[in-house]
Amino acid sequence: MKPIIYLASLALFLSACGDKQKPTDDAATTNNNSIVILTDAQFKNAAITTGKIEQKDISSVLKLNGQIDVPPQNMVSISVPLGGYLKSTKLLPGMHVNQGEAIATVEDQQYIQLQQDYLTAKARIGYLENEYKRQKDLNQSKAASDKVFQQAEADYHTQLVLITSLAQKLQLAGINVRNINESSIARSVNIYSPINGFVSKVNVNIGKYVSPTEVLFELVNPTDIHLALKVYEKDLDKLYIGQKVISYTNNNPEKKHEGEILLIGRDLSTDRNTAVHCHFEDYDKSLVPGTFMNAEVQVKNIKAAAIPTEALVEFEGKQYLYKVIGKNSYEMTEVNTGETENGYTQILNPSSNLNNATLVIKGAYSLLMMMKNKADE
Hints:
Oligomer: single chain
Shape: rod-shaped
Order of helices and strands: HEHEEEEEEHHEEEEEEEEEEEEEHEH
Radius of gyration: 43 Å
Number of strands: 21
CATH architecture of the largest domain: Beta Barrel
Number of domains: 4
Helix content: 25-40%
CATH class of the largest domain: Mainly Beta
Number of helices: 6
CATH topology of the largest domain: conserved putative lor/sdh protein from methanococcus maripaludis s2 fold
């Protein structure tokens, strides 16, 4: 029985020794999964070239967003200075209107009364003027007292003020005083568009009484639309008046709209941002107020730490460089990247160790593939 137990123990020992003698792979990694070590043959096949981080002129692009806006002088709120009932209108949101076009009709009995008062005052002015002149002549000849003359003079000038005041009220209401007389008194007035543009809002319906403070319609002249961008405090020093801007919509990103910075806000919101207004070089009818836009601003060249773009590899959504740590030995190091220009990519805030390190600038992808193959085994 003992020989059998002995033979079994010997067999297990030899089997264990056989497992330990399995050949190792040609390329080995340490316990640190970010390090890869190549054999001489692998190094030759990988065609690795090394270099260091360089200082390069990199033009960065500042990406912003905002929306189409209209300056206050191109937005008009239409109201009725004296109020009244809306008799008619054909306006609908989106309709185009021309300057001077009648866009609504309002009627009210006060317009009749206003014209009556004006015509009555105008009819009486002749009598008062003649009475004033007559009393003036009598006063000069001492045939009338100063008091009577002064009363006639006051009545005449008071009537002139009344006529002028009523005429201004009629003009404010939209009634031309030259078109009214005792046989032609209108009970309604027309409202005219002060600009060429589009109807953005209609706030009333026919038959409704509107007060002088109520806005009936809102009109927009879109020919001077501009782009209002939101810019945070940290990026304000990169912008200047006249700087070129390229913008595009989310729905049609291929269509670029060129413009330039017209005005930079001087106050910050609670979110530490301000508005930067940009003027479009060409008017595009497809851009309507309120449209959200993306924009890119080319900022000045800066001296930046940069590496050839092919030295970077992407792994699990992050960017890495391979740093030489010994003969045929490389360590994968995560980096934050910035702008790319002329084959070089900016490295943001590189550490001092990385600045002075020898890096793989060609063949980095081969190293990544070897590491991935190791991880899959």
